[in-house]
């Protein structure tokens, strides 16, 4: 009678095949060795299509200008809901880690669960860190969305059990995910500034905004997150929108090395300092987690200081797409509106539409953070640069 013991049944080549299969499985699980998945929260710097989907549910609403050409024209060739001419920092991260572009959560159904296991994005254009009710109570209702950070975290908690259900262990999936917490908080200041709130009042929001971000990070750690990147604010005093809005400022209010508005950049710096202080304390409490600060501010200051060095031959302050004027920005003529104009070479501009950056600028921020020294701790001490894949050229198609 034949003996079907595993050793005689399975030849050595069969054992090899079995080992290879196991390796393939773990490769699949750990993508390029660093992360299996990306989970993202934030606003227009990270939204890959959520507000576009949310708006589509309101058929009477005119399409927002973000969802019209020329948004997306340089890479996707159609508007995708991203507030740029091409990819965002999150897209470059996904590419370099060897994961698909991170799918927007809104509008997803059961068929998308497999996709969400490799990346899910809860970020929404216009979102604030503090609840909309906080701002509404101060006379600043959110013009775009009520999907604040708390709402986004709620979506995550609600959807996560079904997203990870078929993976043996939900803990494993979140443990091996790279969590992107933002950028978020910029709109808590943007909406208030645009509504005419004083800088003194807006400064009082900063500790509350930071607290909202920190408490979300804490919750994610409690849920098993091990690697969280928390970007700070961009230097908003360099944006075409504010340079236009406050165009009649005193000469002394401009930084003479960049042309940016000093007091607005100070607001971003204050936010970033407070955020870093809180992150430092959080690291002390959670020594087994990688709590990474992303220095968007100084990464961006590189090209605001030396635009030519980075190929931004049209300077760093004027928008590529907009309604004309010294900074090609006009509050009543947005990029995408019929009477807006578009520059010939977006890669030579930092600023895309007044408030958002071009993919060329986002690529430099991505590189500075993930392959450079603009995170704390340095990202390559957690995921070596050799593990990252090269990213596609700016003008290459998806
Ligand atoms: C936000 O919520 C308020 C109060 O419920 C509502 O009136 C408003 O239309 C909402 N705004 C958006 C952009 O959805
Ligand atoms: C720029 O500002 C610095 C410090 O505020 C000042 O010392 C310097 O003279 C200024 N340079 C020019 C060219 O105005
Ligand atoms: C903005 O555009 C409107 C409409 O075309 C125009 O009337 C206005 O003068 C422009 N404002 C500036 C500051 O250029």
From TrEMBL:
Keyword match Membrane: no
Record-level Gene Ontology MF annotations: hydrolase activity, acting on ester bonds
CDD domains recorded: SGNH_plant_lipase_like
Pfam families: Lipase_GDSL
Domain of life according to the entry: Eukaryota
Signal peptide location: 1-29
Keywords: Glycoprotein, Hydrolase, Signal
Keyword Glycoprotein: yes
InterPro entries: GDSL, SGNH_hydro_sf, SGNH_plant_lipase-like
Family to which this protein belongs: Belongs to the 'GDSL' lipolytic enzyme family.
Protein's recorded name: Lipase, GDSL
Organism: Cynara cardunculus var. scolymus (Globe artichoke)
